[in-house]
Amino acid sequence: MKFRNVSAVVIAATAALSMAACSGSSSGTSSGGSDGKSFEFWSFTGINAKGSAEEYKKIRPDVQIKLTEVGNAQETAQALTTALAGGKVPDLVLIQGDDLPKFVQQPQNFVDLRTMGADKIKGDYLDWVISQSTTKDGAIIGIPTDVGGMAIAYRADLFKEAGLPTDREEVSKLWPDWDAFIETGKKYTAATGKAFIDNAGGSIYSQVVNQGQEKYYDPAGNLVYERSPQVKTAFDLALKAVAAGITAKQSTFTEGWSAAMKRGDYAVVSAPVWLLGSIRDNAPDTEGKWDIATIPGGSGNWGGSFLAIPKGAKNPQAAWDYIAATQSPQGQLDHFAQARSLPSTPSVYQDPKLTSVKDPFFSGAPIGTIYTNSLLGLKPFLIGPDSTTIGIEFTNAIANVEQGKGDPAKAWDAAVTNIKTAIGG
Amino acid sequence: MTTSISPTKASLPPAPPVQAARRGFTETVAPYAYITPFFVLFAVFGLIPLLFTFYVALFDWNPIGEHVFVGLDNFSRLVGDVRFWNAARNTVSIWLLSTVPQLLIALVLAHLLNHVRLRLALFFRMTMLVPYITSVAATAIVFVQMFDRDYGLLNWLLGLVGFEHIDFTQSVIGSHVLIAVMVTWRWFGYTTLLYLASLQAVPRAIYEAAAVDGAGGVRQFLHISLPSLRPVIVFTIVTSTIGGLQIFTEALLMNRGAANTCGPVRQCQTLTLFLFEQGFIQFKFGYAAAVGVALFVMVVVLAGLNYFLSTRIRPVKG
After folding, report:
1. Which of A80, A233, B129, B171 is deepest in the core (most CB within 10 A)?
2. What is the model's pTM?
């Protein structure tokens, strides 16, 4: 165990160094230049933005892309905010869906992509996704690059030890709804003495709350988190899982979460498509032991990102050309094959290039089909400027109970009080 | 104004006597020209941002949107904000838990390292600085892993001897202790060396005379080392107060699950982390600036109080 810790430190240090290297690196000459073909692009780490840029250079060898991997999604949004306030902005920037509402509220900072031709292609994208980047006046400030279809990743080998079915079809049948999911967890924990899921906030609350038709805002933009039935249901289910003692109490993306995953101290993670990469990176030795089943309730979306062009961009046309080429249905399909980011363009969901993708790390699960199925028939819900803050306070309240410090009977009221303090009313 | 006198003029070869008056002028002005770069840099990176913070604190300031003047609203909201008082409490608690042991450890270590018969003295003195030159983030990552609830080295050892695992990061006192340990670890060597340097200026003869009179190590420490260190102790108390009230990185890296609040119930969120959360996560620059002003006032008051108290110790000299 000591050695594991040491190696984790080494990995963390290496990661920190390589991130520093990435943020300093650039593939191209200085910012854009005056030829109007080149542009500066800010993206996140960990999503192979470099690969996308290289691909684009193959079809447009005359273009120079100055790519900066700023940091994680939140850090990129922070850097963008600072840049917008300071006036020196990139030509193209990737924004995560959770961070988007703050920018949609201030559309004067971005190029209305309708002026570049977004009107003609907006029909390519899932309507409830592109609605997130459309302002009240109809301006489109971002093109959706991917969506976050939902599913459950489980350890087939551990299921077998617990006497549960291992086949992904049968496992999916174990949990038609979340109550059945928690019941399955109780059986697993009773049989093995080990935790079933990583944590209740991430693997239950954040999933359930993203399966409804109304989250923290009603369609008119009023705050309804206190009375939204989906929110209360999600919160109560999470507390139920905590009370059942089936969680490992490891917050997502912490050292303990990774360590417990490596050791098989929990068997199940609710995994939106973008989480698969983290499982692969954190626990490479578990290759082939995982499989993927459908999410209780059948459908839902969590996450996704958007490409936007800041108003002050020097080379907006070059940036738009990149969007148009890489975010077309075909472009997103190609990107899915190599980077596992789920297309936001439903026209390719039946394409054999998508349905045939099987992931060997997850026992050859047909991830293209499983994840796109979770997106069909979804109704959009409004994400508002305080959605992220509200979500954090609810998951914090759940985590507090889970870690054994908070009283479950008071958790909901505490969360609501904290939200009111945080968003000021 | 002083910048208009080019520093290069001061380095010209000696001027002929007819220019004596001018040389006098140059010699009067040159010292100011030499120190000007510092004050220019200080103004640009210190004073102006400081004053601008006071200005921003009067606004509802969206960095990418409107700036609405709200007067002192941010401050009145701050006074009633439980998160602010919680952060203030955490900050003071962590500061006390880290500063007091750190200064005491440094005092004792400096006294030991100053011992005339210590072998490998240089080695020990150099080793002290290793934590100080290690990156804060690296230190924090390693310590948080060592103190981890389920997989940490410390809890593993506790488990071996039959104790329950302690969840350091999730409890208020546990998380404060952990941060204090990191801060102490980082700074004790630096403080020790400051004390040691000061101790080495004390004539050996005094220690020898004391030894001849029958004073043991403890008495020598209390009656020779301690009094001679007073000025540098005052200095370290003031600097560690300023530093201790601005603890940030350790708190940010403590609870990855809820990093910006240092845990689900803000159990170790310091004032600087609260400022960061308001300014750079919530993008409420005006409110964050108000937190900054409050922190500034706290630092000034506490550093002043410390200075006052530690200089008052003087009569105890014996």
Report:
1. A80
2. 0.84
Cross-chain residue pair A405–B144, CB shorter than 8 Å: no
Angle between helices B230-244 and B82-113 (to 10 degrees): 150
In this structure, of A178-192, B9-23, B110-124, the range with the lowest mean pLDDT score is: B9-23
Locate tokens 């007073």: which residue? B230
What is the per-residue pLDDT for A379? 78
Cβ-Cβ contacts under 8 Å, A255 against chain B = 141, 144-145, 148, 151, 256
Closest CB from B77, B148, B258 relative to A256 = B148
What CATH class does B74-316 carry?
A: mainly alpha
Tokens 């209390």 sit at which residue?
Answer: B222
* CATH classification number, A150-300+365-423, choose in 3.40.190.10, 3.30.70.3400, 3.40.50.360, 1.10.490.160: 3.40.190.10
Write the CB contacts of B85 (distance below 8 Å, at least 6 apart in sequence): none
The mean pLDDT of B30-36, rounded to a whole number, is 89
Residues of chain A predicted below pLDDT 50: 1-33
Domains A2-148+303-355 and A150-300+365-423 share a fold: yes
Nearest-CA residue of chain B relative to A1?
B151
Tell me if B265 and A109 make a contact (CB, 8 A cut-off).
no
Residue B197 pLDDT: 92
C-alpha separations of B183 from A80, A267, B98, B124, B257 in Å: 32, 37, 6, 20, 22
ipTM over 0.85: no
Task: Return the residue of B nearest to A397 by Cα.
Answer: B264
Contact list in B for residue A422 (CB cut-off 8 A) is 83, 282
The verdict on domain A2-148+303-355 having CATH code 3.40.190.10 is yes
Of B63, B145, B171, the CB nearest to A81: B63
- Residues B165-194 have pLDDT tens digits of 999 988 999 999 999 999 999 999 999 999
Closest CA to B278 of B91, B90, B81: B81
Domain ranges of chain B: 2-56, 74-316
Domain boundaries, chain A: 2-148+303-355, 150-300+365-423
Instruction: Please give the pLDDT value at position B1.
Output: 38
| Binary contact (B265, A396; C-beta < 8 A) | yes
